[in-house]
Amino acid sequence: MVYPYVNLYLTELEFSGTLIGTLAAAGAILTLVLTPLLNQIADRLMLHRRLLMLYLGGFALSSLLLATTRNHLLVILAVLLFKVTVSPSMMLGAQLTLSQLIRTGRTIFGQLRSFSALGFAVASAMAGGVFALGGYSMTFTVGAIFSLVSIQLATIFPAKPKEKVKPDTGPKQPRNRGIYVLAASQFFVAMCSHNAFAFLFIHLSQNLGVRIADVGIWAALLALVEFPFYFLTDALLPRVRLRITYIFGIAGVALTTLGIGMVPNLPLLALLLVFRGLSWPAYQLSSYRLMNAISHPRNVATNQAIVQVTMPGIALLLTGSLYGWVYDHMGAGVFYALCALAAALGACIVIAGFRLFDTRQLHDSA
Asked: Considering its fold, how many domains does the chain have in total?
C-alpha cells in the first residue's frame, strides 16, 4: 500500500535522485548481510513462519516512523528498515506458499499470486483516497496497521512442516549449476526492475503529469492488469519449459521498461502496462518455480533468498547511486533505456547457459 509513496515522500523532503539511489544501495548492503543469515537459520530450525512475522513487524515499524517524522536522519533509518523487510518478506511469503502447495499436491501458485496482485491493486487504490484525506502521514499509518494485521494472517502457514526433511547421511551433493545461471541472470534483471520501479512513480509525477493523489490509481492499474495473467499462468507453465517462459518473461520486461521511458502520454502508458501484465507474471512465477525445482528441500529458502534477495541486493549496491545520477542528469529516457539493457543481458545469460541446468533434477518440468 505504501510502496509507491516512499520515494515520492523522499522527493518532497528534497532528497535527490542520487541520494534515493544511494539509500537503495545502503539498504542492499543490510539486506545482503541479514537476509541470507536469517533465512539460513530459518532453514535449519524450520522457523520460516516466525521469520515472516518478524519481517512484517519491521515493515510496520518503518511505516510508523515515516508517518510520524520529517527528520531526515529518522526518515533514512525508516527507509533502510523498509528496504530490508519488504523484499525478503515477499520472497519468503511466496516460498512458504509454494512449499505448502507442493506438500498438498496442488499447482495453483499462479492463481494465489493473482489474488496477491488483486490485493495490491485494491490497497493501492485505497492509498490514493487515504492520501487525499490525510497526506503522507495518514497513508503510512494505515499501511502500518495493514502490516500488523498481516502478522496475524501469517499464522495460516504451519509453524513447522508436518513432514520434516531427513538429514543427509551421504556425501554432500553439488549445487545444481542452473542455480548459478539463475543468480547471474537475476543480477541483471533486478538491476532493471528494482531501479526502474524505484523511480516509476517519480517519473509519472514529474514527467507525465500524474497528481500524487492519483499515484495510487496507477499503482492499482499496474497490479490489476497482472491479475488475469497470474491466474492463467498455472495452465501455461506445465506446457512450456520453465526456462523458455523465464526468457520470454524477461524479454517482455525489457521491452516494457524501454517503453516507459519513451511514451509521451498516459493513454499509451496504460496500454504498455497491459503488456507488462503479461510479461511480469511469466518472469516471476517461472523464476520461483524453476529455483524450487532445482533446489534441495533443506536449502530451498536459502537458494530463493540468493536469487530473489541477495542478487538484487548486489545489483542495487553496485548500481543504485549510478542509476539515480543518470535519472537526475540524463533524464528518464536514458535511465529506462539502461534499465532495459540490463534486463536484456539477463535474458542473454540464461540463453547462453541454457544447457547448464541439470534436467534430471527438474523432473521434466523445466
From this structure: 1
Q: What is the pLDDT of residues 258-313, one digit of tens each?
A: 999 999 899 999 899 888 888 888 888 888 778 877 776 666 767 777 777 778 87
3-state SS, residue 359:
helix
What residue has cell string 520501479? 197
Q: Quick check: 77 and 63 in contact, CB under 8 A? A: no
Output the nine-digit C-alpha cell for 250: 524477461
The CA distance from 323 to 319, in Å, is: 6
From residue 236, give the alpha-carbon distance in Å to each of 108, 228, 229, 244, 354.
Answer: 11, 12, 10, 12, 20
Give the DSSP letter string of 27-70: HHHHHHHHHHHHHHHHHHHT-HHHHHHHHHHHHHHHHHHHHH--
Q: Say if 11 falls within a structural domain.
A: yes
What are the cell numbers at 289?
Answer: 518455480
* Backbone φ, ψ for residue 57 (5° rounding): -65, -40
**Does some domain include residue 38?**
yes
In the three-class reduction of DSSP (H, G, I as helix; E, B as strand; rest coil), residue 366 is classed as coil
| This prediction's pTM | 0.71
Distance CA 201, CA 356 (A): 38
Give the range of the structural domain holding residue 338, as residue numbers without chain letter: 3-160+175-362
Residue 239 per-residue DSSP state? G
Specify the amino acid at residue 363: H
Q: CA neighbours within 13 Å on the CB side: how many for 79?
A: 29
CATH code of the domain containing 7: 1.20.1250.20
* C-alpha span between 130 and 221 (Å, rounded): 17
Q: How confident is the model at residue 113 (pLDDT cuts 50, 70, 90)?
A: low
Query: Does the residue 14 lie in any domain?
Result: yes
Does residue 120 sit within a domain? yes
At residue 164, the 3 state secondary structure works out as: coil
For residue 308, what is its C-alpha cell? 530473489
